[in-house]
Amino acid sequence: MDATTITRHAEVTLTAVTLTAAAPTFADVVAVARRGAHVVLAPDALEAMAASRAVIESLAEDTTPHYGVSTGFGALATRFIPLENRLALQRSLIRSHAASSGAEIEREVTRATMLLRLSTLATGRTGVRPVVAETYAALLNAGITPVIGEYGSLGCSGDLAPLAHCALAAMGEGEVRDETGRMLPAADALAAAGIRPLELREKEGLALINGTDGMLGMLVLAITDLRALVTAADLAAAMSVEGLLGSTAVFAADLQALRPHPGQADSAANIRTLLAGSPLVASHQTDECTRVQDAYSLRCAPQVHGAVRDTIAHAATVAGRELASAIDNPVVTVDRRVESNGNFHGAPIGYVLDFLAIAVADLASMSERRTDRFLDQARSGGLNPFLAGDPGVDSGHMIAQYTQAGIVSELKRLAVPASVDSIPTSAMQEDHVSMGWSAARKLRRGVDGLARVVAIELLTAARGIDMRRMPSAASTAAVISRLRENVPGPGPDRYLAPDIQAAVDLVVSGELVAAARGVAPELV
């Protein structure tokens, strides 16, 4: 599976993001990372940077060693670096730390990483000159994206290798992609954009790499995507309840209120709203219906989907705190002290990235179980085996469920936490690391897989409802109508992969949820 960028038509389009000394928002990150919004540095940010830079420069000629200013790094922090070698120290730091390997990470991840490092610079707590931040803003605004390999960060002492590649590009070294996606030497890209390469001074190299920005950027993007996908999963569940002739009584507000988890209440409300007035639901609410209770994958959808919602909310709280943070080591404090600290440790982010991976796997697992019920003649309530047009001659959606099952199995493997797998580095100086970057990388793959699983459930539920040959709820009818613009209805077997991809595209773009909201704008 390739990582899929999930964007929503309902998102506000921002043409420019102004960075102040305060925290950026989720919308700021998404606008710059995904939609190429320009970055503007506010006057208060430039003033804060200039003030903290004065503190660093006052220490530059001090004979007392100051970490990051006049010493080596990591396990080499005990070595005092003479004044004449300070610029070489910063260059060497960036060159040596730009050591990533593997497949190139996505443009949106790199842009989010750069923006968030720039945001920390703008707090005035890192001691860099304003020109450093202005150069990063210029790179973002020119659409110049450093080429970064997937491996290299352990999520402690910051996302060192990824951030070093960003700094290397600002120095006019390494490889980048321009706004058209063409790969070229950084020096050529900067020259074409009229950007002067940075010559880093005391502490500036360290300030550019000692942050949690890569894993945080991926967390913000994942939360943005999952907020949309959990609503799509509510829609899929509602359509499965409808197509499988399930009961809607269990979704009643008073029953849900007996267990007052906010996410559960939201998902149950969505399902009730989507199925309101459904003739198909009403058709089997008669004395002839002997079913007492539905299977858990139908009956317990609000409980599982709601738990996912609450997990997303918790992760968003953590991400919001991190967005408001100034991560560097050492930092320039408000009262002008330069102090070492451990705020670069990625544990808070790594934990919630892993938590989200668990929620993603379980949400997909329940979706796959509902899909499977449609395909089993013994459990589908009278539908053709595998929803085939001519069972035996046709296989219907048999193998679509195999695809789901393969993805769900992978999502379970991806749910194994990365954050428990610390490994020591830097001659045991960095003897406990977060692995938050790895947690973020696997979560991106998980989000992509979830989108595909939910899309196949929607595709299958729509086919099952169509095969009932009865009217469905107004909301679900609007969704099926939108789907049918891209995917034909039931009939003989045809090449199925394009139908699945069309459904994935409609989920990823938000168009199916938008179709439902056209009838039921109160969906959350």
Automatic annotation (TrEMBL):
It catalyses: L-histidine = trans-urocanate + NH4(+). GO terms for molecular function: histidine ammonia-lyase activity. InterPro entries: Aromatic_Lyase (IPR001106), Fumarase/histidase_N (IPR024083), HutH (IPR005921), L-Aspartase-like (IPR008948), Phe/His_NH3-lyase_AS (IPR022313). Keywords: Histidine metabolism, Lyase. Its EC number is 4.3.1.3. It holds the Pfam family Lyase_aromatic. It is found in: Cytoplasm. Pathway: Amino-acid degradation; L-histidine degradation into L-glutamate; N-formimidoyl-L-glutamate from L-histidine: step 1/3. One of its GO terms (cellular component) is cytoplasm. GO terms for biological process: L-histidine catabolic process to glutamate and formamide; L-histidine catabolic process to glutamate and formate. The keyword Nucleotidyltransferase does not apply. Belongs to the PAL/histidase family. This is Histidine ammonia-lyase.
